[in-house]
Design brief:
The complex is a heterodimer of chains A (371) and B (424). Chain A has 8 helices and 19 strands. Chain A has 371 residues and is of the alpha+beta class. The longest helix of chain A has 18 residues, at 178-195. Classes of the chains: A alpha+beta (371), B mainly alpha (424). Chain A binds chain B through residues 62-64, 83-91, 93, 95, 97-101, 110-111, 114-115, 158-159, 162, and chain B through 318, 320-321, 323-332, 334-335, 338-339, 342-343. Bound molecules: adenosine-5'-triphosphate and magnesium ion.
């Protein structure tokens, strides 16, 4: 719709949260010291467990909640005192919030009407927005006469029809079934790429966050735990919360035996020693939690990197999942250590009761501070 | 069990059959009849209750408004003469003879007062004419015309004869005419009632106007209250809701009387204003025993009936709608007008209809605090029920009121749709 903007320097700080704090009751801080810079055209996702303050951040940005402390800037301008209707931010709500007493067309015309746009111009814009979400034929329907996915599209079109540069979405796909959700993820991402808008997206579905985002801010307890592109977040979590929250993860508690910049030796509870990459490690003898992705665990000797420590494992259960085998094992006293092997030709099948040796690349095992 | 004929052979006879060959419809009816009988037995008491307390009285009322045999039952001979002659016929000696005989018989049966009352409804000042004549009727000698005229010259009045003719039939629309400020002249034609006696039309209009005003006031007062109740957290709003409902647990009489204490000339409000120096001792405001009193007290009493439907419509409205409107660029006023208000329309309609209908028929409060200028049509109905004992006129007035309410209901259905009504 409007791809050309006068001052679009690509990496300008478009949205800035500057030491923002928020408390609803004056006793607890729901958002503690939020510093976040979002570039123009970026797709940023806020990911985190329930109650971690994601919606609160979004509401402060949209103007429905005031920041207790700190400053929020939009395109360099502080907006703490700007009322919501003057911020020009598009917003998609979790329950869509389509006006039930207006037809789809009227819903879309509403933001244009309150901006004083003339009727003819309005109609053209509404038609274009509807076509954009492939809902051109539904202009005269009432929202109640649409399916969940269709309502979702209309809510999206309504948030985009007045050409906002920034669109906020609060769990917009939460109410849809898995297949539709995946389809809509794709469409939202495509619209973002096509229109060049900046999107701040809230979800607690990590799959959604990983597939759609340029960067993900992982929230917990009112703080951003890590802000990074999806791959980095997945492969190099900065703390054990992020490691646990994103993807499936094996956790082995232990004590740091020795470490340098690249590598750490960790002695597990049962006395075995394994190799890991140190993250947030400050001293020998420190408690740590080694986190290893199930798909990065190896049990075939020829695949193991030379010189690493191996560790014994008892196979407890093998689950056939089509494309992978999910093997649960007893490792260093932990009963739910999981290994995932791709179902390739010639893959050796393990059987419960078997005793094997496993190992991993030290880069894939991250020795994190225990929470 | 269904035997769905694969060949579709039953299609020709237009019906499916069960496994043992009975038509499906019949089988279904048999299967359901037991359940239906039981359901009927369950609702029977309720049905009887409704019939006894609702249908019968209203039927009675409608019947009374067109039926009054006070004259025809007690004056059979003259009634027969009226039936046999054309309207406008000069009463002859036979007529006067029949009249005298009837009067004598009625006096004997002590029912001449009833007859006089019935005629008096249509022509005032005639009750004593009948009772006086009844006392002497036994002694009258022919020619009866001269004898009666000697008793009282009014017996020759053509208007009296016109009235007697019109009441000689038990069924008559005259009470409706009276309720609409109309009357019949000596020839039986419908004319407007004399200037000084046109009170019902004015009262109907005043009732409608005051009810509309009270409805409007209730709406203005109830809307913010209901909104507050609907947006507060449930624990707090329940507490406030008790305050709204509290008046329901207080006697209507107590509430009305407390307004009298507050608003009368020597009442709390006037005293306070005098004490504060807002008004002088001789400038006390008359707020009781007039229209103002009726409006204030009735608005207060009917307020909960507006708050409750509004609340029940507002509570489920997601605050997200207004937020969405604001985020789309609407000022808070536009968001209210375009998004919030339209969604509360069913509640506004229901509350307004409820309050208006209740106000139109309200009796106690205007009777107590209304004075002369605050009386409503229901007060006049009560007057005719209790004091003038003209039940037929009371019934006709009440029937007109009922018709008005039904028309209103119909209009509402046409304009807004009764299915959109949401009372709670
Ligand atoms: N209006 C409010 N008044 C008081 N406390 C609130 C309010 N809104 C949110 N909170 C509290 O603030 C905290 C963060 O809430 P928030 O809605 O931002 O979480 P969230 O990350 O969006 O969670 P979810 O994933 O469940 O939507 C929660 O503990 C919540 O109870
Ligand atoms: Mg939320």
């Amino acid at each position: 719709m409007n791809a050309s903007r006068p001052d679009s320097t690509p990496d300008a700080a478009f949205v800035e949260f500057d030491r923002v704090q928020k408390s609803y009751d004056g006793e607890t801080l729901v958002v503690k010291d939020l510093n976040l810079t979002i570039a123009r055209g970026e797709f940023l996702t806020m990911l985190g467990p329930s109650g971690s303050g994601k919606t609160t951040c979004l509401m402060m940005l949209a103007g429905f909640e005031t920041a207790t402390h700190g400053e929020i800037r939009l395109a360099g301008r502080p907006i703490n005192q700007v009322p919501p209707h003057k911020r020009g931010i598009g917003m998609v709500f979790q329950n869509y919030a389509l006006f039930p007493h207006m037809s789809v067309g009227e819903n879309l015309a509403f933001p244009l009407e309150v901006r004083g746009m003339r009727r003819a111009e309005r109609a053209a814009k509404v038609a274009r927005a509807l076509d954009m979400v492939q809902m051109g034929a539904f202009a005269n329907r009432r929202p109640a006469q649409l399916s969940g996915g269709q309502q979702q599209r209309i809510a999206l079109a309504r948030a985009l029809v007045f050409d906002p540069e920034l669109v906020l979405m609060d769990e917009p796909l939460g109410a849809l079934d898995k297949q539709l959700r995946e389809h809509m993820q794709f469409e939202i991402k495509a619209l973002h790429d096509r229109l060049g808008i900046t999107v701040v997206y809230v979800t607690h579905d990590q799959g959604e966050a990983l597939t759609m985002s340029d960067r993900i801010a992982v929230f917990n307890d009112g703080r951003i735990q890590q802000l990074a592109p999806p791959a980095e977040l997945y492969e190099r979590p900065k703390n054990s919360f992020v490691a646990q929250f994103i993807g499936e993860n094996n956790k082995l508690p232990g004590i740091i035996e020795a470490f340098d910049d690249k590598k750490a030796l960790v002695r597990l509870a049962t006395g075995e020693v394994i190799d890991a990459t140190p993250v947030n490690i400050r001293a020998r003898g420190q408690q740590t939690l080694v986190s290893i992705r199930p798909e990065r665990v190896e049990f075939k000797p020829e695949m193991m990197p030379p010189g690493v420590h191996r560790i014994a494992a008892d196979v407890l259960e093998v689950v056939y999942m089509g494309d992978i085998f999910r093997t649960r094992m007893r490792v260093a006293g932990s009963e739910d250590f999981v290994m995932k092997c791709r179902n390739t030709i010639g893959q050796r099948r393990l059987t419960p009761g078997e005793r094997i040796e496993i190992a991993w690349h030290p880069e894939d095992a991250r020795a994190l501070d225990p929470m | 069990m269904l035997a769905m004929d694969a060949t579709g052979a039953d299609a020709g006879r237009g019906g499916l059959t069960t496994a043992d060959g009975k038509p499906l419809k019949q089988a279904l009816a048999t299967a359901q009849s037991r359940a239906r009988r039981r359901a009927l037995l369950l609702v029977l008491p309720l049905l009887a209750f409704i019939v006894i307390t609702f249908v019968v009285p209203i039927g009675q009322l409608l019947f009374r408004s067109v039926y009054n045999d006070g004259f025809s039952a007690n004056m059979p001979q003259i009634s027969a003469w009226f039936r046999e002659t054309e309207p406008g016929t000069e009463p002859d000696e036979a007529a006067y003879a029949a009249l005298a005989a009837d009067l004598a018989a009625a006096a004997e049966a002590r029912s001449v007062g009833v007859v006089g009352t019935r005629v008096n409804y249509e022509m005032s000042g005639t009750r004593s004419l009948f009772t006086a004549a009844g006392r002497k009727a036994g002694d009258l000698k022919p020619p009866f015309r001269e004898a009666l005229l000697e008793l009282n010259g009014t017996w020759g009045d053509p208007q009296l004869w016109g009235v007697m003719r019109s009441v000689s039939s038990a069924y008559s629309a005259n009470f409706y005419l009276a309720a609409l400020d109309l009357a019949r002249d000596a020839n039986g034609d419908i004319v407007r009632a004399p200037e000084g006696r046109r009170i019902y039309g004015m009262l109907f209009l005043r009732t409608l106007w005051l009810s509309a005003l009270i409805t409007g006031l209730c709406l203005i007062l109830a809307y913010p209250v209901a909104h507050l109740l609907a947006t507060l957290p449930l624990a707090k709003s329940n507490l406030l809701m008790i305050l709204v409902l509290l008046p329901f647990w207080t006697s209507l009489l107590v509430r009305t009387t407390s307004w009298m204490v507050l608003l009368q000339e020597q009442g709390v409000v006037n005293n306070t204003m005098v004490a504060l120096g807002l008004i002088g001792e001789d400038g006390r405001i008359q707020m009781m025993y007039n229209r103002t009193g009726t409006i204030i007290a009735m608005t207060h009493i009917l307020l909960p009936f507006m708050i409750l439907p509004l609340y029940s419509v507002m509570r489920p409205i997601n605050p997200g709608y207004v937020r969405a409107a604001r985020s789309l660029g609407a000022t808070s006023w536009t968001a209210f007008r375009r998004v919030y208000l339209p969604q509360t329309l069913p509640g506004i309609g229901a509350g307004a209809l409820l309050v208006f209908i209740l106000a139109v028929g309200y009796y106690i409060t205007p009777a107590l605090v209304g004075g002369a200028s605050g009386q409503l049509i229901s007060n006049l109905i009560a007057y005719h029920m209790q004091d003038s004992l003209n039940w037929s006129l009371a019934a006709a007035l009440a029937a007109l009121l009922l018709a008005g309410v039904l028309i209103l209901y119909w209009l509402y259905d046409r304009l807004i749709g009764i299915d959109k009504l949401k009372l709670g």
